[in-house]
Amino acid sequence: MNPQLDEAIRQRGKAFFASIRGESPSIFNKGFWTGKVMDWAMQNEAFKVQLFRFVDVLPYLTTGDNLSRHIEEYFAGGEAGDIPAVLKWGAEKSGLFGGVAAKLMGKAIRSNIEGMARQFIVGETTREAVKNLGKIRKDGFAFTVDLLGEATVSEGESDAYRDGYLEVLAAIEAEQAHWKPFGAGTDDLDWGSAPRVNASIKPSALYSQARPMDFEGSVEGILARMRPVYRKIMAMGGALCIDMEQLKYKAITIELFKRLRADPEFRDYPHLSIVLQAYLRETEHDLRELISWGRAEGLPFGLRLVKGAYWDSETVVAKQMGWPTPTWTRKPESDMAHEKLARLILENSDLVYFQCASHNIRTIANVMETAAELGVPDNRFEFQALYGMAEPVRKGLLKVAGRVRLYCPYGELLPGMAYLVRRLLENTANESFLRQSFAEGAAEDLLLENPAATLARELAAHPPRPKAEPATLDGLTAFRDEPLADFTIAELRTAFPAAIAALHHKAGQTLPLVIGGQALETADRLPTVNPADPTEILAQVCQAGMAEVNQALAAAEAAFADWRDKTPRQRADVLLKAAAIARRDIVALAATQVLEVGKQWDQAYNDVGEAIDFLEYYAREAVRLGTPRRMGREPGEKNHLFYEPKGVCAVIAPWNFPLAIACGMTAAAIVTGNTVVFKPSGLAALVGYGLVTIFQEAGLPAGVFNFCPGRGSVIGDYLIEHPAVSTIAFTGSMEVGLRIQEKAAKVHPGQRYCKRVIAEMGGKNALIIDDDADLDEAIIGVVYSAFGFQGQKCSACSRVIVVDAMYERFVARLTEACASLAIGPAEDPTNAMGPVVDAAGQAKVREYAALARQEGDVLLERQIEGPGFYAPLVVVAGIRPEHRLAQEEVFGPILSVMRAASFDEAIAWANSTPFALTGGVYSRSPKHLDKARREFRVGNLYLNRNCVGAMVGRQPFGGSKMSGVGSKSGGPDYLLQFMEPRVVTENTIRRGFTPIDADDEWVE
Amino acid sequence: MNPQLDEAIRQRGKAFFASIRGESPSIFNKGFWTGKVMDWAMQNEAFKVQLFRFVDVLPYLTTGDNLSRHIEEYFAGGEAGDIPAVLKWGAEKSGLFGGVAAKLMGKAIRSNIEGMARQFIVGETTREAVKNLGKIRKDGFAFTVDLLGEATVSEGESDAYRDGYLEVLAAIEAEQAHWKPFGAGTDDLDWGSAPRVNASIKPSALYSQARPMDFEGSVEGILARMRPVYRKIMAMGGALCIDMEQLKYKAITIELFKRLRADPEFRDYPHLSIVLQAYLRETEHDLRELISWGRAEGLPFGLRLVKGAYWDSETVVAKQMGWPTPTWTRKPESDMAHEKLARLILENSDLVYFQCASHNIRTIANVMETAAELGVPDNRFEFQALYGMAEPVRKGLLKVAGRVRLYCPYGELLPGMAYLVRRLLENTANESFLRQSFAEGAAEDLLLENPAATLARELAAHPPRPKAEPATLDGLTAFRDEPLADFTIAELRTAFPAAIAALHHKAGQTLPLVIGGQALETADRLPTVNPADPTEILAQVCQAGMAEVNQALAAAEAAFADWRDKTPRQRADVLLKAAAIARRDIVALAATQVLEVGKQWDQAYNDVGEAIDFLEYYAREAVRLGTPRRMGREPGEKNHLFYEPKGVCAVIAPWNFPLAIACGMTAAAIVTGNTVVFKPSGLAALVGYGLVTIFQEAGLPAGVFNFCPGRGSVIGDYLIEHPAVSTIAFTGSMEVGLRIQEKAAKVHPGQRYCKRVIAEMGGKNALIIDDDADLDEAIIGVVYSAFGFQGQKCSACSRVIVVDAMYERFVARLTEACASLAIGPAEDPTNAMGPVVDAAGQAKVREYAALARQEGDVLLERQIEGPGFYAPLVVVAGIRPEHRLAQEEVFGPILSVMRAASFDEAIAWANSTPFALTGGVYSRSPKHLDKARREFRVGNLYLNRNCVGAMVGRQPFGGSKMSGVGSKSGGPDYLLQFMEPRVVTENTIRRGFTPIDADDEWVE
């Protein structure tokens, strides 16, 4: 930046500060409760966490008891066991807390917090909002109105959201005439350029099914409800700004903005804006692309540039998903980006009407001075601030620039609280300009410093830690999960249809057995078909008989000694190669699942990702466990504990996670030095065959992995009872699992080992909805857990247990949400649900659907016709613990809804089945969450999230009771099951002479 | 010390040094191979280890091939893969290595090392020895002759050792007349006081069965062979010095010295000496006690004071056994002790004839000056040095003091090598006076410094590390094994007979069931008897029927929830209390085993020790595993892996480790939060009842541990198949174990968990004797492993596989050793072996004894008559892998001897049974040891030691194949078997707000 400009900016900033000297945002005013509490929160991170969480849950606390209980749970955890004094502050004065009972105090706290929320909201009703908008205009500020909304989880809710806009617009329309335009008003425009009516709208709320994977569906789904709103605005001569939300909606939002702007109906009406977020690394690219598009189309547009309000969640989500951090990670970087982007916009002010939304005086001053330097006319840019925040800044802005628009949310307090949390975060973040300026009184020079200089200072003081991964054992980097599917990437969205088309093309191939590295065709064949169109035979699969099982076992036995005698690292390297191959071929491998078992794109992709995770994780685990551990430190004695393989492992795989689970069991067996006879599910033999090609290319020696599909009725028991088998790794139904266990327990002549059976079996998993659950999240979590991949997961939610007080609200929204799901072939990413895997599954689900009608009250049953194996989606209420629908695994899209009198009863019911696999709780009560942690006894318990999709290494997976025997897959104990421990003890004393080693425990 | 004396000592020392200026012990002479090699060894610790180990094995390398192979294995391990140049040094000059083949080089190295050994030995034959003793006297030195000997492992060998002394004395007798006494000889005494003939003798070699536990038997056993030797010496007018060996023989040696000295036959003959070691902390006490005794008895005696030659092994052994370090740990402390003890002796010079044995000039000077100060007459003390060592010192001594005696070992090179290793260690130790003086040329001032000052300097430079144990989880100290039985402690030796007597007194008591904390008597009773005298009924044991099993299971189920909900630390604390109780009652608990199952004192004591170990170890393990582990470090997500109990565990215990194994299985189950129904073996119900009293006193809640003895035929299957049982922990025979496994695999109605069976079963364990095995150790190890507790251990050695070249030598010594064992009631510590546990065991052993006569050549069969269940001790040779005696577990004192053509064949045979529990190898070939490590596939492999007595935490115990299923007891994976893993995942993001924790992986 040229030094003159920088100096001008700083001078401008100083003048700005001078003009507001002595003023402070009301939220920091320590004379009031809010200011006191904010002050305490900024000093005390733990209190801040509790406070913001409490604000979040507050609207759900509809009874006094509930409120007192939560205040106690959130704030009385300390040693004193007492509520922090700051929360009670002012009680004596106000009389609210005098000799106060808990309930009274609760009411006071609620009232104070609701007061905080109201400060940021222009009104709770349309009437109040419109009245206040008028007042705002009287104060000289323009507005943009925004309707607060819960996340929309159903199409009904999206309709309501659209209707809410239409309602407020109608109300404003009636008032509009009374509002005089600001400045040299021509054409009823403020400042000669901006419509008096301005609305901002969140696109994702307009289509409950919007998601990156269904890009086209999402764009059109949103537009369908946005058009009437925009039409109305156009009719009123107003302006619309399409808000930018989380990154996952960015591409969709840009696309729908373009379509709406270029729509013949609206193309001649210029008052449409979009928002870009300076904190995203991609934004410069997006901006340039938008400008080019606008120029090419000849379409001027408005652009609000913000710093971005989702930094915390964007960075956290990216970390969780394994994606690169999408944002700048240091605050000055975002500030720098804003300055750079602002210049770019101002340079294109003929095309782009600039809306600078920031409370940062340096940022504002930069825009003013840059506009001045570039000679941008005043009516080509305006400033925006949030209603209720940064009052001194907006006041200063009004003085200096004149053109200030306030962003004015209105709506109910419930969604208002979510908005409040975001605003509190913004005000109290360590790096907040407002906090630094007004709460901490930082030096103006620093506040007005060029962010590039600030960054340089910060980097000097806290240099970034070196990026090199800490090496773990044997030079391997630490394990990381494969990134989850990211359908914001356009290339991935287009790769799927191409891969699926290629598979259709190949349909009908013959799959041989592969034994000892040799393909072997048998006469007995079984087709594997597309469940969405069973006439499409994907492959004819050769079936093994007993003779072939013998051959496979012999090949595995023959390969054993050499494989066993490789080092753990050598075996691990084969897995790592296999992982790299699967990573390269991930879309093709996922597409196979889409066609063969009807799995949705994202879940198919993540299944392959999980297979890669197993390869990567077990490779490292094998090296870790393969390193002998010294036991004891006594001198003269060396004890080493280590593990070695047993021999031949039979891997019997399911069809529902057809690559991940097959690969996990197989990888565990082979990386520990065993050899494998692999029997894939007949319903997923084509996916299973993928392992053959992956391992072959990875250089696994012939005979270590033998592909041996066959009919369970013909070869199942034979394989299990065979004396050559030492370990059986099985995933499937409880019935088959228990049979395997029983058969394998008998020792047959010639058998070397007592067989180890590792069996992952069924589940009857419950999600509990507490009376303070965040319903926006709970509905989405339940729907995904219950109906993702048609409920055909051992982890799937098949019971939802709702605490009485929440029941009606939850069930109503849930039913609507389920009714909103698109059902159809998994090939089409629009569909959230597809056919079940085969006719037997279909028949079973239909039986349970009939049972649902007997045992309970069916709230929803969606029958899908078509050539595929479609099974009804059923939501059935009135289920009690003794019902079969509360006890038996269905393995399909049937969800039992149970109404529990209390959280304790919900836990008891949740535990009341023969299974103990997964489960979950949506609750914001710390005590209830703790109780669940202790007493909701399932293998994998999830708090405040869905109960499926366990990640290798992070959520080792598996249950107990009749859900499984064995240690959790993807966890630190899993590989032990495939090995025998050995200890070698050496006496190192010879003739009294004992070399003493560094790690010996020695005298003194 | 008074400064004048100290100054006089230093002046005396300086004069001493001056008198030998320029001289050096031959071993450090770098002009020769030995000096060169010593120099290299002192610079290179790894080479030193290999060199000394090679010297140790050298006499066993009787073929050129074997020799070359070992040279290669010991020395060619480095990167160069070549033999170190130093070993080849001088080859060109000597012509020995010119263009040399491996065999030739081997011969040269052997010849050089044998030369080293000869330097320290006065002769290999009696004739040579006597001749050289004469030469020594010609040089002005007196001598004491010592017969080198292998460890004696049988009474025949002890006889031979005694005879060796008689032979050399006879030979000396013939020469004695030609030797003129030194000094003013009167009565043919040297220096007017010392007999010309002087012999030193190692007492332990005179009785092959000597051991601290059998104190009286050891004293008398040794005296029986020492008396004729001393008688002969007295007849010759000579003197005898009883050498002091390892600490374990000290009390025995002092006692036998006193008895011999006070024996009416010898009481009037004063020329008997004993040795004390200054490095032992106890020595001052021993010395004062001996002086009091001498004064009380009016018996003057001789006393050789040495620093002590077993420092390395005493400290190492103490660490391994868990005993306090018996020695001073810093060299100057031993030097200080020598000075203090020397003054004490010299103060009593009227009673004690002082023999100062040291090569340390400071030590010598101290004795001279202290004697002068005290006015001790010259003929009341003499100096001693080792033949072949420290030549300058002995020369200087001769000049200064005149009275110098050389300690002269003679005998074959094979035992000579062991002696050589000790001498090399002494010469090359970092703190060796000789090394510092002559190899490193340390300053005389430092060498002559008062050791108290040296110590102060050392402590200042290297202060002792703080003694505080590093705290582990939850404030618990690190686990340590209970100290093993130490029968050098007189109180322990006397406690056993008292405890046993008390038990005899209580015989006939009734043992009730204990269910839910209540004693319950049933009508059906079974006696438990003393196997050494089956007419002695120790107790009448109430037997449970199915009704009582149901009661016990109900009590266990009722107690479960409360116990489960305790914290791991609370449960661990109960175990730690139980451990303290068992520790307090250890002798009484051990005595019960002596009587009820016929276990020898030491093994019974160590069995209780192991029970304590299990309590202490599992307590800590439970806390470790009870601490939830965070999985993954992604922000916004908390995944914790932890474990929880399942319910009721059936513990079915064996009689052979009646407390340890019962306690281990029980402790594991309860500390993890399960409750237990415990069925002890009917043969060890009294021992099993010990757990009831221990746990009751420790405060275990009622119902957590239920004592439920019963007939297997009545309640066995019922208990195993019961749906209330979730885990079965069993130790016993393969037949029963496999039956349990099969029965438990079937799921019965009402059953919550697939039952986990943890079964430790049988073994058919082999020890391999390689062609270079150290036989002294191998024989002792095999005998103890095969016949300790009558072979009734699953870990017992029941096959010894001997490599052909070693066969004859090994088998001859083994058979003699077995013939030397005393057999009789375990009450009497003389007996190394007792009766088997019952008539059935007796009958089974007899059957296998008969089979031995059919399948092999019985080398030894010892039939013991008596009222007890004595079974024959059998050593049978000619057993081949296909014989039943090579395949079937006998569980009694029958040892099969197998002759293998090679080490490889030995390994193959060792692996050829259905079992894989323990095994061992005696070998000094690094390659063979490595091969065994890899390919001798048993659960617990022991190199160069016996194969029994695995220590908790150090040697986690358990096998595979038909020896067991489950993880090793006493190891880090064991407790996992009693628990189910759970993972709780919490999504900590609320409204995008995510508290970031310190251990989160965060941006940048």
Please supply descriptive tags for the structure shown above.
1004 residues, 33 strands, alpha/beta, eight-stranded parallel barrel, 16% strand, homodimer, seven-stranded mixed sheet
Describe, in plain words, how this protein is organized in 3D.
The structure is a homodimer of 1004-residue chains. With 1004 residues, chain A is of the alpha/beta class. In chain A, strands 1-4-5-6-7-8-9-10 form an eight-stranded parallel beta barrel, surrounded by seven helices. In chain A, strands 25-26-27-24-23-29-30 form a seven-stranded mixed beta sheet, sandwiched between helices. Chain A starts with a helix and ends in a 17-residue tail after the last strand. Strand 30 (940-943) of chain A pairs parallel with strand 33 (979-987) of chain B.
What's the SSE blueprint?
The structure is a homodimer of 1004-residue chains.
Chain A: H1 3-19, H2 33-43, H3 45-57, H4 64-75, H5 85-88, H6 91-94, H7 102-119, H8 126-138, E1 142-147, H9 155-176, E2 189-190, E3 194-195, E4 198-201, H10 215-236, E5 239-242, H11 250-262, E6 272-277, H12 283-297, E7 301-306, H13 311-321, H14 331-347, E8 352-357, H15 361-374, E9 381-386, H16 391-400, E10 404-410, H17 413-428, H18 433-439, H19 444-447, H20 451-461, H21 490-506, E11 509-511, E12 513-515, E13 518-520, E14 525-530, E15 533-542, H22 546-564, H23 568-584, H24 586-597, H25 601-626, E16 629-630, E17 637-645, E18 648-652, H26 660-671, E19 675-679, H27 685-698, E20 705-707, H28 712-721, E21 725-731, H29 734-744, E22 756-760, E23 765-769, H30 775-787, E24 797-803, H31 804-819, H32 839-855, E25 857-862, E26 873-877, E27 894-900, H33 903-910, E28 915-916, E29 918-922, H34 926-935, E30 940-943, E31 960-961, E32 964-965, E33 979-987
Parallel strand pairs in A: 1-4, 1-10, 4-5, 5-6, 6-7, 7-8, 8-9, 9-10, 11-15, 18-19, 18-21, 19-20, 21-22, 23-24, 23-29, 24-27, 26-27, 29-30
Antiparallel strand pairs in A: 2-3, 12-13, 14-15, 16-17, 17-33, 22-32, 25-26, 28-31
